[in-house]
Amino acid sequence: MATNRNATVRYVALDQCFRNPGRKYFMEDLIAVCNNSLLDLDPESSGVKRRQVFEDIKFMKDSRGFEAPIESYKEGRKAYYRYSDINFSINSQPLNEQEAQQLKESLLTLSRFKGLPQFDWVEELKARLEQTFKLGAEDNIISFEENPFLTGREYIGEIYNAVVNKKVLIISYKPYKNKQELRFDLHPYHLKQYNNRWFLFGLNNEYNNLTTVALDRILEIQESKLNYIQNTTIDFSEHFDDVIGVSINPDQNTQKVLLKIHPELAPYVSSKPIHGSQIIRMNDSQYPTMELFLQINYEFESLIMSFGEKVEVLQPTVLREKIISRITQMQERYF
To answer: Which pTM does this prediction carry?
Structure first.
């Protein structure tokens, strides 16, 4: 079934026409009703043509749609359309096959939240939907990468609710490199998972800057009485475009990185790019080169190290020297 909202609006508008026994709706009338409904939704809508309405009627009558009892009745040289059963409505029909499949897929995604504190309602909702729409139990056919033993997962529900309801949080925090506990007010904006760990991004009330908080380093969360400051500057759908991971330096520009990669690794990184800017160039030697434009951070360095001997940093020099230093330190531990 078409799932875009314009199609849904047209189906509802047509349904109301076909259910109305007090008026005869000819094709021109149906087109006008659909266009009026679409204009109410979007004033810039280009509307629909006769062919689209015919296709909508055909779909509504089909078993893949609503199996609607739509009949055409001749009147002179024209025909009007109406349900043969005036009590019929697409709103009272069970899910069709495509809708049921889409709902099943949505339930699989919801299952990812199973076991998370304050998301117990997901299991209850899933059970109700399965019973109401007779979806039946499915085998476990999909798994998400996660670490159920990771500390900090218990805060996800509380933080999520704070973001949605725009509540300021008092966070007690223990950084890795600091023995002293930190305590600060944070205006929470965004939750992100990376490498099986969860991170919270928000405005630090004391320093008035964006702060990254690893949930597994949180000791305690309380609700603050401060007024919430809205996020008006950061688009989190694009915020991480220039990095790998979650570490972003606002004072650092993106840099061109050139890597020499082993031929055995080339198919892997081609099918699974390590960054959106990645370009692989073939050259005269047997070793292709990878070109990237991004910020250099700890996560990127660690990713390079994870490829071992199959990747060599050619430029920039500062990154090459960092990798050499880490390799040297590693060698000293083993020899």
So the answer is: 0.65
